[in-house]
Amino acid sequence: MRGLARVLILLAPLALGYMVWPVYAALEIRQAFIAGDTATLNRKVDWPALRASIKSSITPQTIARLMQDPQAPKPTLWQRIKAAVAPSMTDTIIDRYVTPENLPVLLGYRRIYRGTAQPALDLAEPRTVLAGTWLAGTRIDQFASFWVRLRRAVFYSPTRFEIEAEDQHHPGRRYIGTLEREGFEWKLTGLSVAGGDF
Predict the structure, then answer these.
(1) Residue 166 gets which letter from DSSP?
(2) At residue 152, does pLDDT exceed 60?
(3) Are 151 and 163 in contact (CB under 8 A)?
(4) Confidence band, pLDDT 50/70/90 cuts, at residue 86
(5) Among 122, 193, 133, which residue's Cα sits nearest to residue 164?
(6) Distance between terminal CA atoms of the chain?
(7) Which of 64, 71, 174, 176 has its CA 20 to 30 A from that of 196?
(8) What is the pLDDT averaged over residues 181-196?
(9) What residue ranges do the domains of the chain occupy?
């Protein structure tokens, strides 16, 4: 009996760590979106799978708004050829915006100014959970503030995890992300927006 208790005591922290690991990966991806860290986004996002999942979240209003945006990223020659041959606006928008450089722009964390991605001007960070304490501004504070906005976190298998979090800058907007473990890293493979538009 004592042996079983010891094993459980040893396994409990490991199980807790495994459950927190994908939530921490989601926080890292969010921080990379805000900072425009393309290296982290390239490492932590499965771009082909993400492009396929985002197609279901883009509404005709979003497509019209993004097509008219003068600061939108310019389409490449290949994207223009595809648009002429198969005129699906959704595919054009997805190809243009769902990249490490431009997805933060689509989500509203960054903006294009004179051809380069810049921080969005109107995004003041709201007060964090541990503001006013000695932990303010630390990774612990960032994680705690992110944890408060979580609405749902579900393991569908040991390697597939879904998380739903509120957007702190756009009231009512929620992001639903699917993360899958590949090797020793969790990658974002799906993203949809609920309760609002891109």
Answers:
(1) E
(2) yes
(3) no
(4) very low
(5) 193
(6) 55
(7) 71
(8) 87
(9) 20-194
